[in-house]
Specification:
The chain has about 140 residues and is α+β, with helices and mostly antiparallel strands. The chain has one domain. Helices cover about 40% and strands about 20% of the residues. The longest helix has about 30 residues. It starts with 12 loop residues before the first helix and ends with a strand.
């Protein structure tokens, strides 16, 4: 029971609302700043798979040359000894003097990465031989 002149300790409703508002603002800032990090992770996954494709293409050309005496690049991912990451799709283009690969990820719409080697028409956005480029 409150008597005149005594105070009960605790927080008022206004103080609690101010604290909840501040926590909400901080949570919103954290969500916005971390929102793009998952896209970056998927792009890094595509880049990694393209590096694996490049290594596998070197092994493939050496193997075909040893077996047939003629060097050729793989035109299908299934010809290469490589396991793609979940959600990644790679398309290959090859001729007798080079190859190009483009990777996309099912979780990142409108983004792609590509790389090429030799004299083949590269998939965009690759413009420099041997360098993985993403848009």
């Amino acid at each position: 029971m409150l008597t005149p002149g005594s105070r009960e300790s605790g927080f008022t409703l206004v103080e609690m609302m101010i604290v909840l508002t501040l926590i909400s603002i901080l949570a919103l800032i954290a969500t916005v700043s971390l929102g793009g990090s998952s896209d970056r992770a998927y792009i890094v996954t595509m880049e990694s798979d393209l590096r694996n494709i490049a290594t596998a293409q070197v092994a493939y050309i050496e193997q075909t040359f040893a077996e047939t005496g003629k060097a050729s690049y793989a035109t299908q991912v299934s010809q290469l000894n490589v396991n793609l990451s979940n959600g990644v799709t790679v398309r290959l283009r090859a001729n007798g003097t080079g190859w190009s690969a483009r990777a996309t990820h099912s979780r990142v719409k409108g983004r792609q990465c590509s790389v090429f080697k030799g004299t083949v028409k590269p998939f965009p956005p690759a413009t420099e031989e041997g360098t993985i480029a993403c848009d």
